[in-house]
Every structure is written in C-alpha cells, then in structure tokens.
Amino acid sequence: MTAIVALIGRPNVGKSTLFNRLVGKKLALVDDRPGVTRDRREGDATLGHLRFKVIDTAGLEEADKDSLAGRMRAQTETAIAQADVVLFMIDARLGITPMDQPFADLVRRSGKPVILLANKAEGKKGTDGIIESYGLGLGDPVPFSAEHGEGTSDLLEALAPYIPDEPEDDEDETAWADVPAADSEDEEEIDPDRPLRVTIIGRPNAGKSTLVNRMIGEDRMLTGPEAGITRDTISVDWEWRGRKVKLFDTAGMRKRARIEEKLEKLSVADSLRAIRFAEVVVVLLDATIPFEKQDLTLVDLTEREGRAVVIGLNKWDLVADKQGLLAELKEKANHLLAQVRGVPIIPLSGLAGEGIDKLMQGVFSAYGVWNRRVSTARINRWLEGVLSAHPPPAVAGRRIKIRYMTQAKARPPTFALFGNQLDHLPVSYTRYLVNNLRDAFELPGTPIRLHRRGGANPYDKERKG
Questions:
Q1: Which domain CATH number covers 402?
Q2: 312-339: per-residue pLDDT in tens?
Q3: How many Å apart are CA 455 and CA 422, to the nearest integer?
Q4: What is the pLDDT of residue 260?
Q5: Which residues contact 240 (CB under 8 A, 6 or more apart)?
Q6: pLDDT given for residue 38 in this prediction
Q7: pLDDT of 190
Q8: pLDDT at site 287
Q9: How far, in Å, CA of 288 to CA of 318, rounded?
C-alpha cells in the first residue's frame, strides 16, 4: 500500500511549492500571498527511490469551525488523520511564530510520525529560525528549500524509515488522454479498466463542489455559501456502476473582463487545463438563472476544445414548474447552442443528491458518441443523397465539385471532404453538411470537425514549381 505524506503548517510556509517539487509538475497554485490553498490536494510523489502519495493542505489558522477558515482547518485535520507521516513545515527565515506552537501540539497529539521541515533555509538565512524550531519539541529540524531544492538528500533520509520501497511505475497517467479511436464501425470499444476523465465546470457558486461531494459520498471538497471558494482543480477517483471515473472539480469561471487578480487568472488557467485533459465536460448551470452569457461561453469553449459536452441543470429542487422549464430550456439550447445541437441536458440537485444517475448515464452516452466512427461506404452513400437534394452553389460561374468524404478520426468525430474549390464553400453549406451528418449518423451534442481537402490542379505551373 502506498504511504501517504501530509504537508502541514501555517499559511505561506511553502507547502504548495514543495508539493509541486515532489510531484514534478506545477499542479498546485503558488502565489506570494498567504492562504492560496483551500482544498487539500493529492498527488503521486517521487523523492529519490521513494514513491508515495503527498497531500497539500490549507494553512492552519485559529478560526470558528463554521467559518471558511474553520472549514479549511477541518480539511487539514482530515489529511492528518489519513497520513502515515506528517511533514510539519515552518518558515526558517521568520522563525517560530505564536501560531506554530499550538499547531505543533495538534500534529503531536495525532500520534502520527512527524518530521519538522525548516523551509526557506537556503544559504544561511534561516539559521536562527532553525535553532528556534527545537523549542517545538518535534525533534531535529530538516533544513530545506522547496523553491531551490536544497536539502533534498536530508529530507529523503528523514522520510525513508516511514515509506516502504515500491517498484517504479513508468506509465504516464495522462498518456491515454488523447489516444485515437480504433478504426472500426460505430463506437470504439471502451476499456472498463481505464478511468473516464470527467471535468465539471461552471460559473462561481453553481454548485460544482457540492455535486462532487454528493457523487463520491464524502465532504472531500470545501463548500459553503461564499462564491469562488474553489481555487485549485482537484481530482478524485470514483466508481459508478463498476466503471472507474476520475472527477475534476474546477474553480468557477467568470467573464474575462471581470477577472483582474493574478490568483483568479491562475485558477481559470488551471480550469482550462482540466478541460483540455478531459474526455467529457459537464457544464453545470444554475437552474434558477440558466443560460447566462457566461454559460454559453463555457459550452462554446468546450466545443472548441473538442470535448464531449453534457449540460447539468443544478439546483433543480428550487424550480417550481419543472416540466415546463425543462422543455423551454431544451428548445432554447437548440437555438443558442447550434454547434452542439442535441446536447444532453440533465436536471439534478447536488445538494439533495437527485439526478446523479441520469447525469452519469448522459456522460457515458456522450462519451460513446464522442468515440463513434462511421465507415467510408456509409458516409459516401449519405453524401450522394445530400448532394442530390441540395448541390453546392457555383462560384464565379464554376460549380464547386465535391468528390467524396471519409472520417479521419474520432474523439471528436472528424471528417475530411475532398473536391475542387472547397475553399470557396460557403459557411452555410458547411453547416448544412454538419447538421445532416449529426442527424444521419446519430451524433447529438458532440463537436463535429469538417476539414476540406482540395485537389491539386495539374496545370497550375506556379504550384508545380
């Protein structure tokens, strides 16, 4: 079993910087201001020959348990309870502060092995702080610099007794994220052993974290009435009806014009990265104020990234006329979101736990459509009928000639159209072809790509030269 190491300490001692160094990626948001981290974040860490799971936590603060800071502290205490060993971090430059002593008592009372890590000790700037840290009663401090990597061998030596040796696994967990579909008819065979990557996005306070907590059956994400609590993109492993799922909870994304702070820009960039690595994106809407301009922007963003889309109508328990509103919203979606016409729209309530099964059915259905392939013979039989019913227009007295079409790849379904003068094909006719493709081959709601491939003119001397 993989050992778990929890990074604990007051705000701004460098826990997230150390987390990023241990996992080898810039996963956790880092900023000069204290209190950036709120949710606890897990990652697979490597230090020399050691392999373990590391948990980044919010900075410990004394606060009322019902306040945001109090809820953040509860998340940190959960991480301590899960850990096999605790790395208690202090800022060696500042030395011991009044906040450090009670939190040192907290980790001591946990009964877990504790390693005192004196961070920011590059050079000799932290010597006085290191000497002071003996007063915490947590044993000999390990001088370290998370930013520069100084003291790595000392940290390795301190952790080694608590972490069993494991064989190195060279498999990249994200390597499968963009694997092309097999060249076969209809859906690609879905591997049940591979987790489906599902990212949940939406405006602030749409209920994303509450929904994730309800799905996995525990208070894993920090929630509350305050808008914009989530900052980091947090991933959790889950299983639905025997299928493995990797859920990504993201920070709420406001209109770009309203984003001014550097920290919010970092959070949004983290959310965008989660969309790019996803296979299915659930755009969560507040059912009491659905289809705001930002909602449409997020759906359009997901479509442009080529990810399967599902729309979740959260807070459905607050809606009075449920049937009437659902019919109205589906009609509105077909009008406002023509680029993903037929997208699944699932009413649900993350707080009450209603509609989660239907949401996941919609997710796996959208994933199947996203992977669908159609044979070239079927496509060209369809194309012949479409061209007969509505041939392409003429350009400068010459008719655009379409020869044939084939599917280049799936994920999302991508088609190549071959012919002459296709550069002059009107957008309206391209839209006509895409809409007919969607209807004829049952591709509702998924992004469809149509690339034009023109034939070379053998009499074009400049091109030949």
A1: 3.30.300.20
A2: 999 999 998 889 999 999 999 989 999 9
A3: 9
A4: 52
A5: 215, 360
A6: 66
A7: 56
A8: 93
A9: 7
The one-character DSSP state at 406 is: E
* pLDDT higher than threshold 90 for residue 300: yes
Q: What is the sign of the dihedral through the CA atoms of 217, 353, 58 and 72?
A: negative
Peptide bond preceding 412 in cis form (omega within 30 of 0) = yes
Say if 149 falls within a structural domain. Answer: yes
Residue 424 lies inside a defined structural domain of this protein: yes
At a CB cut-off of 8 Å and minimum separation 6, what does 133 contact? 90, 92, 95, 96, 116, 118, 141
Please, which residues have CB within 8 angstroms of residue 397's CB and are 6 or more apart in sequence?
Answer: none
Average pLDDT over residues 275-293: 93
Looking at residue 362, its pLDDT comes to 96
Length of the chain: 465
Spell out the SS3 assignment of 143-202.
Answer: ECECCCCECHHHHHHHHHHHCCCCCCCCCCCCCCCCCCCCCCCECCCCCCCCCEEEEEEE
Structure tokens at 232: 């980091």
Q: What does the alpha-carbon distance between residue 84 and residue 230 come to, in Å, rounded to a whole number?
A: 26
pLDDT of residue 456: 54
The pLDDT tens digits for 143-169 are 998 888 888 999 999 999 998 876 554
- Paired tokens of 78: 């959960």
CATH of the domain at 10: 3.40.50.300
What are the distances in angstroms from CA 202 to CA 100, 177, 295, 313, 342?
37, 22, 7, 11, 20
Looking at the fold, whether 340 and 224 belong to one and the same domain comes out as: yes
- Same domain? 57 vs 118: yes
d(CA 87, CA 404): 63
Shared-domain flag, residues 27 and 156: yes
Q: Please tell me whether residues 217 and 158 are part of one structural domain.
A: no
| Residues 212 and 358 grouped into a single domain | yes
